[in-house]
Amino acid sequence: MDRRRHSFVGGLLVGLVGIGILVITVIALLIAPVVVWFAWNVLDFGKAIGAGDLGFWGIILLSIFLVGGAFIRIVVVSLVFIIDPAWFSKAGTLMWPEPTFKIWVATVLLVLVASHSAAATRRRSEYRGNEPPSYA
To answer: Considering the domain boundaries, does residue 15 fall inside one?
Structure first.
């Protein structure tokens, strides 16, 4: 009887951790486009580096690129290449932005969005290392 209880509690905890990670990921994916839009278009980070404003799909793709892992980044770059291959041959001249407080805030916001990916990867790898043996 005691073994079944431990198995149930262990399964419940693993399920709750999984749901928690899923909820945090969904919230990050919903909030990330708003934060990217604010940093890029409202705080003029794009104009400051010479890239201009982003439209709706540009914001969505940049958000997914920043939040996602390496595989997701490859998918985003592949989508851009398939949809608009001429985009890669366009000349772009980016510049270092002026050191203003507004640009600093925009940079911090974009780094926070991008750091979600690294933190999620770290949590997954730590969790895999602490998995208990099976409760057979």
So the answer is: no
Residue 114 neighbours by CB under 8 Å, 6+ apart? 66, 67
- Residues 41-84: tens digit of each pLDDT: 999 888 888 887 888 988 888 888 888 788 888 898 898 888 88
Query: Looking up tokens 């990050």, which residue turns up?
Result: 28
User: pTM to 2 decimals?
Assistant: 0.62
Domain limits at 104? 39-125
Question: Any residues with CB less than 8 A from the CB of 68 and at least 6 apart, and which?
Answer: 75, 76, 117
Burial of 67 (0-12, 13-18, 19+ CB in 10 A): buried
The domain tally of the chain equals 1
Question: What torsion, rounded to 10 degrees, do the Cα atoms 36, 38, 44, 46 define?
Answer: 10
Q: Does any domain span residue 58?
A: yes
- Block residue for tokens 């580096």: 49
